Amino acid sequence: MAGVDEVTVVVAHSERATLRVGELFLKVDSDRARIDVEVEAMRLAPVPTPEVRWCKPPVLAIAAVPGQALGRLGEPSPASPAAWAAAGAVIRELHDTPPPPWVGRKLVGLDAELERECAWLVDSGALPADLVDRNREIAEAAIRPWTPVFMHGDLQITHIFTDGDEVTGVIDWSEAAPGDALYDLAVLTLGHEERLDDLLAGYGTDVDRDVIRAWWSLRSLLASRWLIEHGFDPSARGCEFDVLRSRM
Q1: 87 touches 162 (CB < 8 A)
Q2: What CATH class has 65-245?
Q3: Predicted TM-score (pTM) above 0.85
Q4: How many CB atoms within 10 Å of residue 191?
C-alpha cells in the first residue's frame, strides 16, 4: 500500500469499522462469523462482487468496485431508471439462486421484537405514540410465511454500484442468508419509494407491494433504536423517521 496519501473512515461503531486505504477497503469486524459469511456469500453469489484481496480475521481486505453507488439515503438518487432496472435484474438473479447453506432469520420472536422496539420509541420520546402505532399496524403485514431466497440482507442504496446503466458491484454481504426476497427490495428502496417502479422493471412485477411497504415500516421501527445507540441519526432528512412519517 505504498504511496497511499490518506485513510478514510467509511463507517465505524462499536461492532464494526470500514476503512478505505487507496483502492482497498479494510473491514474490521469483532464477529468472526460475519467475516466468514461475507467471504462465502461473495463466493456463492452469481452477481458482481468485490475482489477479496486477503482475509486475516478480524480484518477483511476487499478491492474497491468501479462506478458509483445508486445513491444515498436522504438524497435523490442520481442513477437513471435504466440503472435501477439493471439493479432489479441483478437482485432477481441473486434471489433465483439456491439460498446459502447457513441459517437465516426466523419469524419466531419477530412479533415480540417489534413490540419491544415500538415501546422503546414511545417511552424514550423518540416518536409519538400515534405514529408508532400506525406503522406497527402496517408492519405486521410483513410478518408472514415466505419462501427463503438467497437474500443479501443489507441491500442499502449505497451497497449497489453502477457505471452508466450497468451494475458493477454489490458490496457488504455480512448479513447474507436465506430470507425474504421482499426485504431486500424494501431496504434498497427505503426512502426512495419513487424508484420502486424502476427497480421492478428489472426485477419483475410479481411481488406484493403492500408487503414491501410493510417492510419499510417494520425495518424502520426495528432499526431506529440501534441507529441512535450507535451514533447514527434516523431523524435526518429522508431517513427512517421520515419513512415512518410518510405512512401517516
Answers
A1: yes
A2: alpha beta
A3: yes
A4: 23
